[in-house]
Amino acid sequence: MLETGALDVDMFRKLAVDRFINRRNTIKVPTEGFSALDMWGNEGQLADTVNFFFKITKEKDLPDRYEVIPEFVKNLIPVIRIRGFKYYGPGEFLGEMSFGEYKDLLFCADKFIHTKDEYWLTRMMAIAYRKRRFMLGFVRLLSSFNGRTRRKYMPGATDYIEKRFDSVPIGVKYMFFQYIMGCVYTLKTDGGGQGIEIDGKNCKFSLVFSRPSKKSEGLYDDDEQGDDGIGLTGVIMALAESGVFGDIDKTSSANVWDVLIRLYQLEVQRREMERKMK
């Protein structure tokens, strides 16, 4: 709601404080002898304590710019019901998500950041939420079961089904957007500098994201990226050519973590080679 302009920063902070202290809005002063000015002054001081929600950018001769810092990686909306049907989203921290799905979600998130158009939130839901796999109970028993419980992501089907998600409340859509932003933020900051543990190894994925485009500072950088990178579509094509995951379709369908780990390994190897050549 803050990003869409429905709430300003001060109202956001006030409502956050009300929620934290379980306070109901009322015109009554809570204690005899306690002035309304004192009450609102105290609430204003409490509101300053929730600035940890924001990245505050100070610019000369301009008002401070507040941006919500997304730090949670748990999808708080694992399932939604539309017209009697259940649609299931990804798991915690990009769980059960393909790399192609991740790429398309970042594209929509970047569009929303720049346009504030709710359409892009709706499209994110249409990309990420799908029905269960056919005969899931039986498929789970097969030795070839890969852990995927949702139907396969089919980019061409998004246009067909996105209208179904128009009725989803904007708060729900925005919560999912914050989940995606939280995952990206955590990857880029290594979970606050602690690193992300993968199979007992502490990985710092900021190495993969540390060379942004010279031409673009957006969340999503595709083929028109500058000299420092090839973009997400370029990553898919490069990995497909290497044959690590198969052709382009198979690379897009590969688990996002498999691709990220491979990119991390390649970046570590590149840096090690540069270090030895010095």
Would you mind describing this structure in some detail?
It is a single chain. By secondary structure, this protein is mostly helical. The protein has two domains: 9-68, no CATH class; 79-277, no CATH class. 46% of the residues lie in helices and 8% in strands. A two-stranded antiparallel sheet has the order 1-2. Helix 1 packs across helix 2 (36-48), helix 3 runs antiparallel to helix 4 (118-128) and helix 4 crosses helix 7 (170-193). Mean pLDDT is 78; it is low at 212-217 and 223-230.
List the helices and strands and how they pair.
Elements: H1 9-20, H2 36-48, E1 54-57, E2 65-68, E3 79-82, E4 85-88, H3 99-115, H4 118-128, H5 136-139, H6 158-161, H7 170-193, E5 196-198, E6 201-203, H8 206-209, H9 231-242, H10 248-253, H11 256-277
Antiparallel strand pairs: 1-2, 3-4, 5-6
Helix pairs in contact: 1-2, 3-4, 4-7
Q: Keywords, please?
A:
about 280 residues; mainly alpha; 2 domains; two-stranded antiparallel ribbon; two-stranded antiparallel sheet; 11 helices; about 45% helix
Number of strands: 6
The global form is globular
Mean pLDDT: 78
What is the first-to-last residue Cα distance? 51 Å
Low-pLDDT residue spans = 212-217, 223-230
Fraction of residues in helices? 40-55%
For the largest beta-sheet, the strand count, sense and barrel status come to: 2 strands, antiparallel
Order of helices and strands: HHEEEEHHHHHEEHHHH
| Binned strand content | 5-15%
